[in-house]
Each structure stands twice: as C-alpha cells, then as structure tokens.
Amino acid sequence: MELSTKGRYAVMAMVDLAQNSEAAASRGRAVNLSEIAERQEISQSYLEQLFARLRRRGLVASARGPGGGYRLAANPDQISIGAIMQAVEEPLKVTRCDAHVRVGCLKANRRCLTHDLWDELSRHISLFLGAVTLADVLSRQMPGKAEALAQFAREAAE
Q1: Phi-psi category of 50—alpha, beta or left, where left has phi over 0 and alpha has psi -120 to 50?
Q2: Residue 116 neighbours by CB distance under 10 Å
Q3: Are 126 and 82 in contact (CB under 8 A)?
Q4: pLDDT score recorded for residue 1
Q5: Residues 148, 154: contact at Cβ < 8 Å?
Q6: Which residue intervals of the chain are DSSP H helices?
Q7: How remote is the C-alpha of 103 from its chain's centroid?
Q8: Structural domain containing residue 97
Q9: What total number of domains does the chain contain?
Q10: How high is the pLDDT of residue 142?
Q11: Which range, 40-54, 94-108, 138-152, has the best average confidence (pLDDT)?
C-alpha cells in the first residue's frame, strides 16, 4: 500500500496544528509554519505548499502580521483525515490498479483478476479515513471495528 509523503505530511502537520492551536490562541497568536516544520521535521517550504491547498479547501485559516500563522477552520472533531487527504489531492493507492477505472487496468481494457478486491479495499480505507477526525488522532481513539463496519454498511446502503 502506498501513502505518499504529501498525504502523510499534511496529516502530521494538521495534527500538530490541532494540538498546538489552543496554546497559541491563549497567547493571542496563530501557529507558525516554522514551528510545525521544526517539531515535525518537515521542510517549511513543503508545508507552505500543503497549507496553501488546505486553506483553499477551507480546512485552515491564515493570519498575517505579528502573531500570524494558521488556525484550524473548524473544531478538530469536525475535520476528518480523509478531508485532509482530499485537500492535498492525494489518492491512496493500494495497488497499480486504479480503483475508479471501470474499463480495465490491463492492456486491451481488461481488468486484472484482483481488481474488485483492491477496489473494495480502497472503499474501506476511504470510509475509515473519513470517519477518523483530528480529535480522534489526538486522543488516540480510533473508531473500532464495529463502528467502521457499521459506517461501511450505512455508506453501502446509500
């Protein structure tokens, strides 16, 4: 399974932002990207690119000037990991098959023998990431198997 650096770093930075927003706000400031870059050992210029995308998708708000930086645009329990991944336009690839290809992933538009398996796995992962919020990650409370299966059943019924 492949989760790109872009997706991993965006999630790490957003969790850091969520964790440090309250302390920064109590000092009358936003969280500076240089602080996140230092704590998470991520290039600041790379974070600037990611946060531009996150801002365009409405997940963060920026403030300029003294005390400037970034704030979450919503509460941590309202921002899903799936939304962060989508904001940085990073699809999760479980194989070389494109889960959204209905024609075929092999030459001559043939589907590989395991295409449906990977398509279903991609759906499960997407549902899981959509159900996990920044607050869940911070509290280390991931949705359990029962909740994930119930969510999947609800989504499949729609």
Answers
A1: alpha
A2: 12
A3: yes
A4: 54
A5: no
A6: 5-26, 33-40, 44-56, 81-87, 115-131, 134-139, 145-157
A7: 28
A8: 5-157
A9: 1
A10: 67
A11: 40-54
Residue type, 108: A
On the 0-12 / 13-18 / 19+ scale of CB atoms within 10 A, 2 is exposed
Find tokens 């990207």 and name the residue.
33
- The CATH number of the domain where 99 resides is what? 1.10.10.10
Q: Are 148 and 28 in contact (CB under 8 A)?
A: no
pLDDT in tens, 2-60: 678 899 999 999 999 999 988 888 788 899 999 999 999 999 999 999 999 999 999 99
Give me 153's structure tokens. Answer: 């059943």
- 119 has a pLDDT exceeding 70: yes
Q: Is 31 in a helix, a strand, or coil?
A: strand
- The rounded distance, in Å, linking the Cα atoms of 67 and 69 is 7
